[in-house]
Amino acid sequence: MPLFDKPLLEMLFEAQTVHRQHFDQRQVQVSTLLSIKTGAFPEDCKYCLQGSSDKTGLESKRLMQVAQVLEAARKAKAAGSTRFCMGAAWKNPHERDVPYLQQMVQGVKALGMETCMMLSMLDGSQDERLAQAGLDYCNHNLDTSPEFYDSIVTTRSYQEHLDTLDKVRDAGIKVCSGGIVRLGDIAHDRAGLLVQLANLPKPPESVPISILVKVKCTPLADNEDIDPFDFICIIAVAGIMTLASYARLSAVREQMNERTQAMCFMAGANSIFYGCKLLTMSNPEEDKNLRLFRKLGLNPQQTATEYGNNQQQQILTE
To answer: DSSP state, 95?
Structure first.
C-alpha cells in the first residue's frame, strides 16, 4: 500500500518507529533564521513575498553588516538555538559579498553554533570558499514536484536546483532541502517532492517542510488551506522516506495549535525554527516554544560543547 494511502494512525506508528531507530525521541533541534539581505528577489516564485514581480510593499534592504549578524547570532544562542541560518534574497551572491559571507560563517562558528546559509544559486568556487570558512549546511529547497514546479517558478529550472545540491555536496557542505505545501499542489506532487529528496545521491541531512504563507498581492494569496491531518501525513512520510534526516517544522507554525504541533512531533518532526521572525514572517517566540516542549516532555538539542560540559559535570557529581 502506498504510504500516503495508509490510515493515519498506522502511518504515525511507522513514522515514530523509524524515528526512534535514528534519533532520541525527546530531542528537538532548534534553529534560528535571519534574513541577512531582504527584498528585490530577481525570481518570479509565486509564493515569495520578496519576489521582484510582486507589489507587496516589502522594503528592500542591503546585505547586513557582519557585526549585526553576529549580534543576532549571539542572541539566538542565548535563547537556545544551536544552528544559525542566514538567508539572502539573491539569485546568487555577488562576488563582492562573498568575503562578508565568509566572515559571518566564521563568526557564527566561533560562537559554537552550526552554520547554515540560504543563498539560492552558487557560482564558480563560492560553495568551496564558504565550506573552507566553516559553513555546515546550505539550504536550497526543491519546493515541490518536478511536474508541478513550472506552475510556481519560471525563472529557473528544476534541474538547476538539483545541480546546485550536487555542487554543495561536492564542496563538503551538508544539505538542507525540503518544500512547501498549499501551493495548489495535490497529493501526487507532495509524494513527488519526497521521492526526489529520498532519491538524491544522499538524502538531505535536514528536510524543512513549510505551509504556504498566504500574503496579499502574491499570486497564491487565495489558495485553499491544507487540512492539518494532511500536513501531519506529509511529515510522517518525509521521516519514513528519508530515515536519518531531520524533519523540520518551518513556516506557518505560528498558525498551528499545540495539538497539531504535538502530532507533528509524534510523526517524526524533530527540528524547528525558533524566534520571533522567519525571514519576513512571524514565528512563535522562544518562551511559547519552551512551554510546549515542557508539556510534551521534549528537550531542545544541546550543542556539542554544552553536551560535553554536562557530561563532565555528571561525571564529577557521581
So the answer is: G
Q: What is the CA radius of gyration of the chain?
A: 19
pLDDT in tens, 259-306: 999 999 999 999 998 764 444 444 455 578 888 999 999 998 865 444
Q: Please name which of 72, 140, 65 lies closest in space to residue 99, comparing C-alpha atoms.
A: 65
DSSP 224: P
End-to-end CA distance of the chain: 51
| Whole-Å CA distances, 159 to 150, 164, 260, 277, 311 | 11, 9, 34, 31, 45
DSSP code string of 52-77:
TT----PPPBPPPPHHHHHHHHHHHH
The rounded distance, in Å, linking the Cα atoms of 214 and 155 is: 21
- Here the cell at position 59 is 522594503
Residues 168 and 99: their CA atoms lie apart, in Å, by 18
- Give φ, ψ of 265 to 5 degrees: -65, -40
pTM of structure: 0.85
Distance, CA of 170 to CA of 128 (rounded, Å): 9
Strand partners, 38: 61
What's the helix, strand, coil split of the chain in %, to 5? 45, 20, 40
Helix, strand or coil, per DSSP, at residue 113? coil
Give yes or no for a contact between 102 and 115, defined as CB atoms under 8 angstroms apart. Answer: no
Question: Tell me, what's the pLDDT at 79?
Answer: 86
